[in-house]
User: What shape does this take?
Amino acid sequence: MDHMTYHDSFNEETSRNANQASEGNNQGVGTVVEGAKVIQEIRRAIRTRSYRMTILGIDIPVLNMPGIFSTYAGQLMSVDEPFSACYWDTPDGRVFNLQSDSNGMDVSEIARSFGGGGRKHAAGFTIPVQKLQL
Assistant: This one.
């Protein structure tokens, strides 16, 4: 599923739940409200904390974002970019989640160059703690 289809189906589901809530069916109301808050916070993080980084000579948007939210943030940041990267630190190292839109680069090739892997528009890799230059 490409990222536009993903977003369209996500938005349709969110709209359907919101409509049910407004019609008096409270099933899913809390989920819709909480989901909207999460999306709002992710977008705020992108606006206020993302920055530019060069990976393999390519200038891209980057954001320190926990893994559970990194896919959505990366998809938003990858629009009109070669690709985007979100990362988070673990005891084993820094994990990178790479995303590109349908016009973007094959991020699986980039991830493979760092020992990772994935699919054309979604891939990742980990830089071990010992190799991080903080």
User: Anything to note?
Assistant: The first helix runs from residue 3 to 22. DSSP finds four helices and six strands in the chain. The radius of gyration is 17 Å.
